TrEMBL record:
Belongs to the multicopper oxidase family. SUPFAM superfamilies: Cupredoxins. It catalyses: 4 L-ascorbate + O2 = 4 monodehydro-L-ascorbate radical + 2 H2O. The keyword Disulfide bond applies. It is an enzyme of class 1 (oxidoreductase). It comes from Ziziphus jujuba. Residues 10-122, 138-295, 403-522 form the Plastocyanin-like domain. Its cofactor is Cu cation. PANTHER family: L-ASCORBATE OXIDASE, MULTI-COPPER OXIDASE. This is L-ascorbate oxidase. It holds the Pfam family Cu-oxidase. It comes from the Eukaryota.
Amino acid sequence: AKIRRFKWEAKYEHKSPDCFKKLVITINGRSPGPTISAHQGDTIIVELKNSLLTENLAIHWHGIRQIGTPWSDGTEGVSQCPIMPGETFTYKFVVDRPGTYLYHAHYGMQRDSGIYGSIRVSLPDGESEPYAYDYDRSIILTDWYHKSFHDLATGLSSIPFVWVKEPQSLLIQGKGKFNCSLSLGTDVCNATNPECSPYGLIVIPGKTYRLRIGSLTSLSALSFQIEGHNMTVVEADGHNVEPFVVKNLFLYSGETYSVLITADQDPSRNYWITTNVVGRSPNTTDGLAILNYYPNHPKRSPPTPPPTGPSWNNTSLRVAQSLAIKARQGYIKTPPQTSDRMIVFLNTQNEINGIRRWSVNNVSFTHPHTPYLISVKHNLTQEFDQTPPPNGYDIVNYDIYKKPTNSNATSSNAIYRLDFNSTVDVILQNANTMVTDNSETHPWHLHGHDFWVLGYGDGKFDIYKDPKKYNLVNPIMKNTVPVHPYGWTALRFKADNPGVWAFHCHIESHFYMGMGVVFEEGIERVGVLPKSIMGCGAVKGGLPKP
Ligand code: C2O
Ligand code: CU
């Protein structure tokens, strides 16, 4: 195993990813930032310099479990104090499993500003995947707002509440195309700016490509398709999938997949790669990239119109794809057949003090001033609410099909304390929003662990009947999973990673509005915390004297 060192500098630059000029946070001048490529077992060291001048920063390594290094998780308020302007923070962690992972800012809604990238972990030399391919490529899908995240976040915290609305465009590997004729002038939006020419994926006719696709959208669920080419899904969130073939791949924010494609079509032309919004009534320009058959000109537009995905409101198609994702034969990690604890999380919208929030069991999450890892480890009990948050909701009486009437929602920074090494089941229960006949899709992401996806269902989870339907034979393990409209998703994980870990909706505005919880386990096993994560809240000047 190797040590791989990276020196990164984050700064604001004017960029035009979709032809519209905006302030973007780049890493070493790029958005998406550099790809981290490593082998299983390597140690990654990232020296991150915050050159944002007047803004704090933290970067999370999405899908990396941080076993033994919970202070490198990069989650502001949970695992560290933010990195202040001018400071350099060193992240150090081991990439202990092969697969496709991501990184992104984890401080307020900062991820929206373009600070994200891919992590690609290969098997050690001499080992190979259970599928064959000639080349390996990574693509990240995002959606893109023209307003700054400061502007969006301010709206979400204002009375009256101002919703972020649909993003302006979809980006494929950091490039999109907004229709500049809707905009103000070529100094603001310039359709001929080479920065926003579509991303081109070059393929050699006859070869097979492993495409590692990750979604880091702010809001949108996506359908991804490559004109004229089927995709064979082989990996999800770092785990081998029993292969299945799709024309459209649905991705929720925080998910990664590997698909195999073979360049076996007419090689005299190029093909479209497209993304479009599903699950919400779309009002966003589709993402367009080009599958460029070598040696055709990379910019030559395909002669046919770009393909679109299935209609945005076809929920059953999306549920069917979620259900199709199973662990690959020969690579199944069998889950524990029983659990020690079940927690049911009801996801609702509420109004708290005149501001619209998302709540979990009627509690809307707020960040504390001192990161939990420090306050829990050092027993700084004043730093967050010590009352345990609710383990469930009123399953008998709550009507998930009605607008919530629960006026008793509260904000809290309380956390769930799990017994070390226990097996925990989490049921994510969806419900109606504050809009009549509306329920949204939420991609939930767990830090520090992978979980088994035991099942998805429609309607209200029945704690007696539904566990009997769990897939305990070949469930896939993931770190991000969708909860479909009016449905539930059941997960199981082992609380075996000492630390404090966020579990939240990966929609940037939803988490900002309180859609998340925090788990603690085995804190007594966490080693001495590095001083570099301190410097805020109660540990501004270091740890208080005992
Ligand atoms: Cu990719 Cu807590 O996030
Ligand atoms: Cu959500």
